[in-house]
Queue: 3 jobs
Job 1
Amino acid sequence: MNIANKITILRIILIPIFLFVLLSNFTNNLLIALVLFLVASFTDFLDGYLARKLNLVTKLGKFMDPLADKLLVISAMLAFVEIGLLPSWIAFIIVSRELIISVFRAIAASEGIVIAASWWGKLKTNSQIIMIIILLLNNYIPESIIMYLSPLSIAAATIFTVFSGLDYILKNKEVLTN
């Protein structure tokens, strides 16, 4: 249990706190949730940086880091569905892609194949984070701007999510044929 893994676990601990705040009726709950989300997102960068820089890469970290990322993003999207900021079919598409690619990677790993993150995957992750940030800023951005920015960020995250899933499968289809 090194510092990088502890930071990953901190991200997982922040998720229920983030959800509690997001789904509460506190004054400025979206703003507080945004700060928690940004802190949790920063821990993703920090744990990876420390693991590589200090040579602290572990099997636990390789398992927990992507799991923590997916839990953070999926929890935010499901909460957005509940509070009416995100259509359920969008959340379904994004969550389905995450589950499909996680199973796909597990199958590949069981065959000794490592599927590296692709450009599309990085674009997907960044677009999802940007979408979540914009939705959390929903009450703080003028309505004339948010009415364009919010649907645009949702559409971009959805499109990049679908394309990245297809990209992983098409580039590594031999995993499915073995």
Job 2
Amino acid sequence: MEGQLDMALQALQTLMEPHRLMILVFGVFLGLAIGVMPGLGGVVALAVLIPFTYNMEPQSAFALLLGVAAVTTISDLIPAVLFGVPGTVGAAATIMDGHAMAERGEAGRAFGAGFVAAALGGVLAEARRP
């Protein structure tokens, strides 16, 4: 158990270097931009970006791909709520309530509910993992 904790702390220290943290943040913004486009999801974003990571060091490439993958699954909420167009299959159910709320002027409330539900779902799913 101690060895795993040491390795996790070393990985966190590696990720928290300013250069890699900036790459991670860039990946988040890039993933958000790609994820908002209907029809493009996380798999497409990763497939497009993998060739750009060939000349990067492995830790930086992982930070970029991690940032992209982290937000593409939730960024499809934005077109579903605002335009009534699901970005991916996972956002199809969001249209029924989220888009109706946006039409009534409650888009912020729909975004808040969607983001909180996604965060709780992600945390609880990871907590249940064996």
Job 3
Amino acid sequence: MQLSRRTLAAAALILASPIGPMMASSAHADSREQATARAITALHELEESQPRARFIAHHAKAVLVFPSILKAGFVFGGETGNGVLLVHGKADGYYNISGGSWGLQIGGQDFAYALFFMTDSSLDYLRKSDGFSAGTGPSITVINAGAAAEANTTTVSQDVYAFPFNGKGLMADLTLQGTKITRIHHHD
């Protein structure tokens, strides 16, 4: 299996350091404007390819978009990426997603996640807690390739809908289990 330099470098970083500190330093690599532009582009790509996402976005209070999450590993895997909270299309905060898992896994993949906050209470929880771990806080329904056909787009009854996707569409078998979303505080 041929691994790209980016995948190998990310795997080395994930293995060599705790995920949290790595994220804080990578947040400064992108300017806020670049991060916001990438998030908006990723959200538009999702909405163009997935009518369910477009419908849910129309009713959402805010969307937290992680345009590039790198999932890589060798025995111990991890994922990490930075994102932007968009409220009415404008940046309202910057966040990091990170997680890890043990198991036999080799290689890596780059994907995006969009989390649609449907209720004021779920959005308030995100803001007041500076983030959260999956399984705590608001209920999250993941709409991946396997669950997409089951998603009911006539009602929006969940706190948060999450869509994992890449350039080919929705991804299968991705959940938010074991991940943490944390607000990035910029010090200007």
